[in-house]
Amino acid sequence: MTFEYTENMPHDDDDASDASSDVTELEEYDFPDHFFERDGRLFHSHGSLPYPLPVDGPEQARLNNLHRILRDTVEFHYLGPVTEVLSDVRNRQKRVLDLCTGTGRWPMDMARLFPRVKIYGVDIVPIATRRPLPHVQFEIHDITERFRWNNGAMDFIHARNIDLAVTDYPELLREVARLLRPGGLFFSGEIGRYIDFAHGSSFDLARQAPHARSFFQVVNRSLELRHLVPIADRIPSFIQQSHQFTVPTIQTFHIPIGDWHLNPVMKRVGKMYLAALKDFAESLKPMLREAEMTQHEIDTLVSGFIEDIEHVPGLVGVYHTAWARKV
Ligand SMILES: C[S@@+](CC[C@H](N)C(=O)[O-])C[C@H]1O[C@@H](n2cnc3c(N)ncnc32)[C@H](O)[C@@H]1O
């Protein structure tokens, strides 16, 4: 079966690319080039890259759920002056790039909202839909490498939940700034690698949800061995220090964990996020095994985490967002 996918190769009909190769179609027998199996899970096979999570069916379902969770938390598919940036006034093809696109839900939803805009999604594995809309293009690309597009080719670059893919965010921002036209928009959204209480500091995580707290401590230590330090709340300062963007607009959102929220939409979000966090813990097990924890230690850590997030009311995840325009 043929994938409607390109591998670092353009087949767009615009002049935005500095590469000149033909389309490469990915056949099923190419799959070993992209995936390998371990502990009954499927991972990317780009050995040098730090991304620690599987990319298989259960993980794809988690990404799709997260997409809905974040859309309902933010109350839309984007923040910032997206409509203005993508309007047709300059009479040129508008282009959006989604970094680490995963299953490609965000580009597909954006494509329905902006039928005249060309939307690209890049990832190291071909897990996006095989049947994108005609103005959506998914490509295999490692975001730590130079992109194929010319300077200023992009109007909007979207980077959501990419913190497990990037060890040098300032370096990535340099490439983002190169790709964006002046006035183009960059958006970052990252869920912090911690949990908190919705109602502030009078609640003590160490006392009330100690297992959830130590779960994130252990996970963060293990991720740091891969040079994946927590960056969710540091991205605005990376943006500012690059001197390539306007002052970022920052917003943080609480994502409820469990069904304690009174608002019916957020109650539903909370139930979904609880399930997504359990799946996240499951997906991290192979990495923890690699970090030389025993199976018993891992199971105890994860079951304590689940016990806390299932039973302690008022817990939230924190979604950090920032957007800025290229100067
Ligand atoms: C947590 S998922 C986020 C997916 C998507 N951005 C979303 O919000 O639904 C991270 C994605 O990054 C991809 N990835 C990891 N390292 C990458 C790299 N160096 N270049 C491109 N994609 C990468 C993974 O394959 C995975 O699909």
From TrEMBL:
**Which stretches does the entry tag as region Disordered?**
1-23
Which Pfam family, giving just one, matches this sequence? Methyltransf_23
Transmembrane regions: none
Q: Which InterPro entries match?
A: SAM-dependent_MTases_sf
Name of the protein described by the UniProt record: Methyltransferase domain-containing protein
- Organism of this sequence: Suillus luteus UH-Slu-Lm8-n1
